[in-house]
TrEMBL record:
Swiss-Prot/TrEMBL keywords: Amino-acid transport, Cell membrane, Membrane, Transmembrane, Transmembrane helix, Transport
Membrane topology (UniProt): Multi-pass membrane protein
Record's subcellular location: Cell membrane
Taxonomic placement: Bacteria, Bacillati, Actinomycetota, Acidimicrobiia, Acidimicrobiales
Protein name as catalogued: Amino acid/amide ABC transporter membrane protein 1 (HAAT family)
One BP annotation, GO: amino acid transport
Family: Belongs to the binding-protein-dependent transport system permease family. LivHM subfamily.
Listed GO MF terms: transmembrane transporter activity
Key word Transmembrane present: yes
């Protein structure tokens, strides 16, 4: 007689525990396939449009104009490389420190301006520098100096302003926003309001022919630099002690502290590297398209889009987000009907909506 209530109680407990997960799982399985199938349908439609249907567009259908398709594809890949360099620093800082660095775009722009000043000093001209005036060292040295300057600015900002507000996400975001406003005003006062650029070295300004179309070697050089950055980041994060500590800290900061690791030093190194990458991207971006007041806000937005699509705190997500966003930026204006190319910006938000409908934390993101 004593055993029957025990079995009854046990049965009741099991029922109570198991029913909610079944209901939860059934709710997910009813909703997620619909959004997933919709995303696949959109992808198939876009592929068919680009390959066969888009004959009234500036690029033409890919089967009719393969050269235009290849050039557009390369444009997307090379721009994605630049996006990755900038956004990887942003997502690295967020992944470990949970800090949304609103000054990231300002660091991008500051590095570009510093590199412009250094290059002009090395070449001996204030304006109208041509590619023939620039050797490889007269581009690499400004790149390194500009990146190091903003890396130092970043570490000072982290140690003096953010270190004392660790864990207070909103306060940190407001602090970095204030820093970005101050930097923007000072850069406008010192460097002026005209568009400027870092000049590519003459060795990479040549054009080559691909599928009957001319293409700039400088864009492939930019893609090669981005690949080198990606490989270096992967090696650092996976094959060095500091990189492994950073990856562990992304997953569990308390565990890292419990092991006796000085998390303050880890935060400092992470912010230094994130700012350095922003600076490197700034010099590459200034060589690619020039910079002007307001460029900082545009590249902060670009970084946010990449990490939202890929997942905050994920380097793999930064790669995926950069590729998707780069392809949208390249293909949308080229394969929209000629009278509607000004709607290309809408496809950025379509990309965000489609990804977040299937993966609310981004492609490789996890709940913070």
């Amino acid at each position: 007689m004593d055993s029957e209530p025990a079995r009854s109680s046990g049965a009741t407990d099991i029922t109570h525990v198991t029913e909610p997960p079944i209901a939860s799982r059934s709710g997910v399985t009813r909703s997620r396939p619909l959004s997933t199938w919709f995303v696949w349908a959109v992808g198939v439609f876009v592929a068919l449009w680009v390959l066969f249907i888009a004959r009234g567009t500036s690029a033409g259908a890919a089967v009719d104009e393969p050269g235009e398709f290849i050039v557009t594809l390369l444009d997307g890949l090379t721009f994605a490389g630049l996006l990755f360099v900038v956004a990887s620093g942003f997502t690295l800082v967020f992944g470990l420190m949970r800090t949304v660095n609103m000054a990231h775009g300002s660091l991008f722009l500051l590095s570009a301006y510093v590199a412009i000043e250094i290059q002009q000093s090395m070449v001996g001209k204030d304006r109208n520098i041509e590619a023939g005036d620039v050797g490889i060292l007269q581009w690499v040295v400004p790149l390194l100096i500009g990146s190091m300057v903003v890396a130092v600015v970043g570490i000072v900002m982290q140690q003096l302003l953010l270190r004392w507000n660790q864990g207070q996400d909103l306060r940190q975001a407001l602090i970095t926003l204030a820093v970005s406003v101050i930097l923007a005003d000072q850069m406008l006062a010192h460097f002026g309001g005209l568009a400027q650029r870092v000049v590519w070295p003459g060795a990479v300004t040549q054009f080559f022919e691909i599928a009957g179309e001319r293409y700039a070697l400088s864009r492939l050089f930019m893609l090669a630099l981005a690949l080198c950055v990606g490989i270096a980041l992967w090696l650092w994060l996976n094959h060095t002690r500091m990189g492994m500590v950073i990856r562990a800290g992304v997953d569990d900061q308390e565990m890292v502290r419990a092991l006796g690791i000085n998390i303050t030093v880890v935060f400092g190194v992470t912010f230094f590297v994130g700012a350095f990458l922003a600076g490197m991207g700034g010099v590459m971006g200034a060589s690619f398209a020039g910079v002007a007041p307001g460029t900082d806000g545009q590249w902060l937005l670009n970084s946010l889009i990449v990490v939202i699509v890929g997942g905050l705190g994920s380097i793999k997500g930064a790669v995926a987000g950069s590729l998707l966003y780069g392809m949208v930026i390249a293909f949308a204006p080229a394969y929209l009907p000629s009278d509607y190319t000004f709607y290309a910006i809408i496809f950025t938000f379509v990309l965000l909506a489609l990804v977040l409908a299937v993966r609310p934390y981004g492609l490789f993101g996890r709940e913070a």
